[in-house]
Structures are given as C-alpha cells and as structure tokens.
C-alpha cells in the first residue's frame, strides 16, 4: 500500500506542489494546515499522522451514512463486477432505471423524468437550459431571464454563477455572466422588532411579485434553495415562502426550480425540503447526498408536461445536452444503496430524534451572550457569533483550532454550523459539542 511509504508531511508537501486545491488561496496554506488523510470510518476521518477528525460537515455536505459504509461498499463491489460505466445515449442499465423510478415514486410521480449529470453545478445548468428551451418549444422566445434570491448559491460554473449571489465567487467573473434578477431573501434573521419568520417570508414574496410584474414576459424561471440557503451561512426561512413562490410562479407563468443539492436527501427533516411546503417545483435538482457521498452524481427531475414539450420529430426540439459520465452505473448503484438505507432503517424517523438530541447537546449556545440566531432545520444546526465578539480571520482560526480538538468544522464568516452524517452516536455528538465549545473559548479568548 502506497500510504505507508511516506510521512504525513511528505504527502502535504507533494500535494502543495502538484495539486491545485478547490476554493482555496493556495498561499494561505503557508499558515493553515493541509491535512493528509489516510482513511475514513463512520463519522471519522483519519489523518496520515494518526490524528482523527469528526466530520461534522459531512465532507462538504455529501456524506449521509458515514465513511466506508458497509451497505454502500457492498453494493459498489457488486456493481463493479457487472458494469462500471457505459454511455447512456442509446443504452440503458438497471441501476439508472431503478433509481429514476424510485425517485419518481418519492415525488408521488409528480416529477417522473430524471436527467443525469455528475456535479451539482451541471444540474443547475441543465435546469436553466431546460426551462429556457421549454418556453422556446412552446413559442415563448422572450422567456430567457431568471430570478434568484439574494445570497443564493447554485454552483460555480458560468451559468450557475449567473444565478448565484455570493460576491467572493462571483465578482471576479461578473463580466462573463449574464446576471439574473435578484429578489429579497426570506432569511428569518431579517426579522425586525417583533416580526415572525412568516412575516419576513411575506415581505420577500412581495418583492418577488414586484419583479415578476416588471419582467413577466421575459422570465423563464425562479431558482431557489428550499428552506436553507446553505452556502451563505445557513440562512433558514419559513416554508410559507415556498408555498407563496409556487403560487406566484403559476400566476405569472414562470417555472420554479428547486435546488435541493444541499437540502435534499433528508437534511431538513423530510426527504425533499419542498415537502414541508406541500408543493412540487417544475424542476428539482439533487446531488451531494444522493450517492451517499461516494461518487459524483447529480440529477434534475421534471414533470411530464415539460418532458412532453421536448418530445418531437424535430431533433432541435429535443434536449441535446450530455456529460461523459451521465448516469454512471456505479454512482447510480451507490444512490440505490443510499435509498435502501433510508427505507430499511427508517432514517427520517430516527433523524427526528437525532435532531432533538443535537438541539439539546448545543443548548449552551442559547446561554452564551456572544452568540445569536441559534437555528435548526432537521439535521442542520447553526448559530452566529456577534460582531462584537469577532476578530479578523475568525473562520480560519476556528477551523484550525477545531482540528486540534478532533473536530472538522468550517465556519462560514461568523456562522458556525454542523451538518453531520446521520450515523452520529450520542458520544460522538457530545464530543462534537464539547469540541466546538472549547474551540470557541480558545478562539474568542485568544483574539480578545
Ligand atoms: C454544492 C451546491 C451546488 C453546486 O454543486 P457542485 O457539485 O459543487 O457543483 C449547487 N447548489 C447548492 C445549493 C449547493 O449546495
């Protein structure tokens, strides 16, 4: 095994020479650690140096049932001996058929047609292109603009960036994108004196309606992250916003695209976040957790009505989009094993209990005067550090200190959050809560 041949430091050095790491100013690694991993087990990641880290962010929100999960491992080993990959144009295979059918059933067959890609941003590109192309096929050539929410995040390819509102990702590439209309976010932290989360949602809906009125004939779709805008600091909002947005989209003949790449697969408590608003979107994008965090897989589900608008003798009315690994059998098989676990182990029911335990374990956050906006949706728990308690470089300092307490947590600005794998045990939860509390004392005191 190659991993024995080098020390942890040697792996880090070699990586920094040859690997360009994502979402990273590489020069920062002069001061902040790059961690060389050797293996994972359950909620733990193990370093080459023998240290361990509780993966409280599910490795960028992808892992659901722990690293080296026995059920998913077994399914993948079985699939390896049957079919590792084949093109999906002109061919099909059992894993992609079964996955599409089971996903359709999970939407009560409202979204019965599934298109596949590999990463989340590609799924967003697909949903945007499909929406635009649907309207063109139906004779509405002018519907080629999109609406997104303030502080939205939908990925970092150029099309996805156009509907993303995160300055640090977007500003450098602004000249390359066709910026969408940005409407108010229903982020419940926007509540002013006495306003409820549903009041905030109402105000945000009024802003959405204004934009729809102004640009009605030109808008193809509204895209949003249901219930939680994750990438911009776990901004949580009331489900009534989704119900209202669905009504407005119907009224103004605009598609609703639900980006459930982060919030899908049970993160907010229900399998799909939109279920909490009793609505279905016209397009629903999934990725991240759907393969259990094992393999790149993304998909867009849509309605029969939209599918039928592409079904035609004329090839140009078809959806001519593809990726080399579309519908990869291994990734689909990992997804099927993931859905098996959800069913066989009654995961959503068990998570209701786990979510309460998380809330209880972090009760100390509600007592700390330096902390505000303690919030939770299902398996996502977050709180903010008040500006008065913060020093520059908080997020990086926290990350570094937390590692020394065997915890992997990456704050977003002043927001600390956990989005752990669903297999977190009581003792692991306690380790996590204590690790975060201790880290916070170190980081805030060191900077005071
Ligand atoms: C992660 C994410 C994406 C992008 O997915 P990638 O696989 O990173 O391209 C898009 N939307 C949301 C809400 C996400 O969290």
From TrEMBL:
Keyword terms of this UniProt record: Aminotransferase, Biotin biosynthesis, Cytoplasm, Pyridoxal phosphate, S-adenosyl-L-methionine, Transferase
Sites of N6-(pyridoxal phosphate)lysine modification: 288
Keyword Oxidoreductase among record annotations: no
SUPFAM superfamilies, sorted: PLP-dependent transferases
GO biological process: biotin biosynthetic process
Membrane in keyword set: no
UniProt record similarity statement: Belongs to the class-III pyridoxal-phosphate-dependent aminotransferase family. BioA subfamily.
Protein name: Adenosylmethionine-8-amino-7-oxononanoate aminotransferase
High-level lineage: Bacteria, Pseudomonadati, Pseudomonadota, Betaproteobacteria, Burkholderiales
Record gene name: bioA
């Amino acid at each position: 095994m190659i991993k024995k041949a080098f020390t942890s430091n040697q792996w880090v050095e070699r990586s920094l020479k040859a690997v360009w790491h994502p979402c990273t100013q590489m020069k920062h690694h002069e001061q902040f650690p790059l961690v060389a991993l050797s293996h994972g087990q359950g909620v733990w990641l193990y370093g080459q140096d023998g240290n361990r880290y509780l993966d409280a962010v599910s490795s960028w929100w992808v892992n659901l049932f722990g690293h080296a999960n026995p059920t998913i491992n077994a399914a993948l080993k079985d699939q390896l001996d049957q079919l590792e990959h084949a093109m999906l144009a002109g061919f099909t295979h059992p894993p992609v058929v079964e996955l599409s059918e089971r996903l359709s059933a999970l939407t009560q067959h409202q979204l019965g047609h599934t298109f596949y890609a590999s990463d989340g941003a590609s799924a967003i590109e697909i949903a945007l292109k499909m929406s635009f192309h649907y309207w063109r096929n139906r004779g509405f050539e002018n519907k080629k603009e999109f609406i997104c929410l303030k502080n939205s995040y939908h990925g970092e390819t150029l099309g996805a960036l156009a509907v993303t509102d995160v300055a640090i990702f977007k500003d450098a590439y602004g000249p390359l994108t066709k910026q969408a209309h940005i409407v108010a976010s229903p982020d419940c932290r926007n509540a002013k004196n006495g306003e409820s989360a549903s009041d905030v949602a109402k105000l945000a809906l009024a802003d959405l309606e204004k934009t729809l009125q102004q640009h009605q004939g030109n808008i193809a779709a509204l895209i949003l992250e249901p219930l939680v805008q994750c990438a911009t600091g776990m901004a949580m909002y009331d489900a009534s916003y989704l119900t209202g947005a669905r009504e407005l989209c119907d009224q103004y003949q605009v598609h609703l695209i639900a980006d459930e790449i982060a919030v899908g697969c049970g993160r907010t408590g229900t399998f799909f976040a939109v279920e909490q608003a009793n609505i279905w979107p016209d397009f629903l994008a999934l990725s991240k957790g759907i393969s259990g965090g094992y393999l790149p897989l993304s998909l867009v589900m849509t309605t029969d009505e939209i599918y039928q608008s592409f079904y035609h003798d004329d090839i140009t009315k078809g959806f001519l989009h593809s990726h080399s690994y579309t519908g990869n059998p291994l990734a689909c098989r990992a997804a099927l094993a993931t859905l098996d676990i959800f069913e066989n182990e009654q995961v959503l029911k068990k998570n209701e209990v786990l979510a309460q335990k998380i809330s209880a374990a972090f009760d100390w956050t509600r007592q700390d005067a330096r902390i505000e906006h303690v919030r939770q949706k299902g398996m996502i728990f977050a709180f903010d550090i008040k500006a008065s308690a913060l020093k520059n470089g908080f997020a990086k300092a926290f990350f570094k200190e937390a590692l020394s307490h065997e915890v992997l947590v990456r704050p977003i600005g002043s927001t600390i959050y956990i989005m752990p794998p669903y297999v977190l045990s009581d003792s692991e939860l306690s380790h996590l809560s204590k690790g975060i509390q201790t880290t916070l004392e170190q980081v805030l005191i060191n900077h005071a």
